[in-house]
Amino acid sequence: MRNLNVLPALGLLVIAGAVGAADVGGFGITGNVGLGYQYSNINANDPSKATEYRDLSSGVLGTFDIKGRGTDYYLNAFGENLGRDDQYIDFNGGKYGDFKYRVYNNDLRHNIASGSGALTPYFGVGTVNLNTPINATGIINKSPGTWNAFDAGYKRQDIGAMFEVSAKSPFYLRFDGNQVNRNGVKDLAGAQGSSPGQGFIDLPAPINYRTNNYSLEAGYQAKNGHVALTAMRSQFTNNDQVLNWTNGFFRGTDTTVLAPNNDVSKVSLNGNLRQLPGNSVLAGRMTYSKTTDNVGMLPNMLAAAVGVTNATNASSGGFAGEIVNKTMSLSLNSQPMRAVDTKVYWNWSRKDNNSTQMTFTPVAGSTLQCGGGPCTTELFNYKKYNLGADVGYRFNPENRVVAGFDYLDADRERIDFIHNIDRKYSLEWKNSAFETLDTKAKYQYLTRSSNFVQTGNFDQFQRRFDLQNVNQNLAKLAFDWTPRQHLDYGLEILYKDNDYTGDRQFLQRTKDKREEIYGSIGFGDPKSFRMLMFVDAELIQYESLHRVGAVPASGDPNAAPAGGPPNTSYTWSAKNRDHAYQVGLGADWLPNERWIVKSSAIWAKTNGSADFAAQAGTILQSPGLVGIQNFDNSYKTSFNLKGTYKYTKNWDLSAGYAYERYRISDIGTDNYGYIVASTPTTQNSYASGLNAFNNYTMNILYMMVNYKFD
Amino acid sequence: MPVKRFRSVGAVNLVLAILLSIVGAQVPAAETPAPAPTPAPTTARSVAPEAEICKGCHEKYVESYLTTKHGQQGNLKGPDCQTCHANALEHAKAGGGRGVAGIFGFNNKKIPAEQKAAVCMSCHGGNRHLAFWASGRHVKNDVSCNNCHTLHTVPGPGATIALTKKNPTISPYETTSRQLQYETCTSCHKQIRAQLLKPSHHPIIEGRIACSDCHNPHGALSHAMVKSESVNALCTSCHTEKRGPFMWEHPPVEENCLTCHNSHGSNHNRLLAEKAPNVCQDCHDAAQHPGTVYDAKGGWVPIAPTTAPNTRLIARGCVNCHNNLHGSNAPAMRGKFFLR
User: For the whole model, what pTM was predicted?
Assistant: First the structure.
């Protein structure tokens, strides 16, 4: 067994003590322990997709689930996948009304790439120094078959504890603490030069993260209200601050700056008052948080061949980051009269960036310059306030209508969108006039108006679509029908569209639309035979408008195509589609008291495409703009069958079989070549195979013997 | 790959060992039996006489209730049948049946959700976990406690609260035996059920994250009942390496992770709401390469007249070069354009 830390052993000591005290003083112990085996066969060039969040390695399975109950005390102990990468252990308990506690260990291995999906010409994977031999042609090793294999992914280990004491009083004190460690390798990437034509290379960077979280909460809780004050601290530590790697284009050692250590302190006060006039509840919350870091500046960076570095000439030797976030919220919910309920709310938030404002003045002609001059950071601040109200009226027991209005006002310190106002109107109707049928219909309309400040040429081509003027329609319809006992139908339909409007020169995203339908049928008594089937379809479309090439002097994006023919400057549009379909079928069968059979099957499909069109009159070289038909087209089949036989009151045996097949086609990874050749070869790009070989077929057999005791 | 051990894990284990020792000390040890006390019906918890009436028709429900925390013998605060379901005697005299003689059935649709919730609130109303119930979306959508919780079943493996789950589990093979929250939540939130099954998703169906890790189903003051005061505060509570602060910020990232990502599931890697490079081009355009059409001619098998794969389309698209797009602390141009 690997990774079996001290925690489960200590927990078992507690349980052993409790078992020893069993049935004394009214404290009874029940539970079960299980031991089994899992056999897996995964056929894949890169099995990471199959094992993304699951430890599917063949091996022993162990579980325990123990409960202790007494007059005053209780205890729960649960553990599964003991010693495996996805081990989970949880102990909690306490004394009713007096105190409670919890300790836990939640492990996860996030597998990202391996096998054919994780190859690199670099040595030193897992360290902060990635090196590979180079010469005048750039990286010497241009044969992926001889590259080094690595595992991209990380082990996440979360160990934590909680203790709360109230001593049967309305006051309470609670402590939470946990430590999360993440260790592994992550596939970063880096541009080799300062221009996109100069290639890129995938960089297997180390992950050595630790986050320590602590919080202390003190509060008062009663039937007519509560108040709580919480102080929280979270410290993130990255043992690796920079990654050094061989740059085949500049033929020297380059540097990528990794995630900085940071520290968050937060104080929050929340509370509510109940039993107010009008059957009202007033709730409120205030938070103040500060996030800080300190980052030393790199005095030089690789800037030119061969191995030439230029000084960055930073205005300060270090960057002191400080972000302060403040929020306040109030909500008043009332029932001022019979059949009427209301909610009025207000939210305010503010982000202040008090970080060091940095300026870099590289030498003239350096590739480190920004547009031929110095580079200065921008400090992004914003504040928002939001008001809203809902009024619900139940005009008879079977019908209820709710009308709502929401108003958002946001100010930003930015070079483009500095202010926006959102107004949202909603109307909802719920009907349960028929005993067997519940219906819900909702319509929502949102309109946003934004102030755009146009400064400088560059800003024209950078427009946050999420802040553009927009009109949004959302409609939702839901039916739940239970014509008779143990038979139920569900149907939900959703339509949402965003129309981005305004007189912007280059609109980028112009429209997006969602059409979704979800249906389900459930049949049978869960105590004997129950079946569920669902069918889901989701169709999403994004439309956008762009300009390629030189901007017309007039600034009009619809100016006639220029350059060529073939034209090199013209307006073009894109229509992206994402479709997802799923059919699921599951059945639980309890033929008699001894047998339980569970089965599940899923067919899931995704389709993505992008169509392009150039403005009328554009003359393009044949074949013109070619649409993409495989943007993450995937197909997954899953099947599970599990049977449990209760041999005696205490013993049962479970066994099962699972099958999965996953296939994906994407233009970014189909016919993967690892190297994009260029001239000169110093501009070659080197990719590692990430996401390129995710197809898999998998068969799993497992069995478990459980012993139940009481 | 060997897992690196940290000395501090040993320290954490030591702290936990101390905590566990305190806990272990709380579990009552074997005692010399005291003389049998004189029976005191007012303090000794047993099946209330009225429950015997209920057992006449609803024996399974009564028996199952007695195995729960509410109903177990010894829980002096635990309610009996009538605490929640009203007068059993009159109901039985009238011959029984749904709603007869004022009996309160939680599956009775004629009873509004707020009345059902009020039954639970009569005891639990002062619980701070329910402090924001009135402010939340569930109460506004006529969700009552019994829609998610069941008092007639013991909690499933690994759970301390019994959640309703009447439907079979439909999911890929999972290595957890725990009853997972999402099965209760997605019985209503069907859109989320579909998203969780997409190729790129948070490990919710795998049991590594629960819905309540991000949302407070009992109510919250934040939109979508997220537990934190903002989406970004929530996301960066786990993704702590994305907190920055960064010298070069990417403002849409600073303001809302959901501008580019779908937290429940997506067709595209890294939970991206739209495929790269198009998701980037929705904001970035014209000058230089952002405005270029990255069409199918630039795949790994280029289509003439294109002669080589386009590095802005294949692999990770824009992120092949602009890798630190959540923010960068690299100097000068390398940081401003998120290249390092």
Answer: 0.90
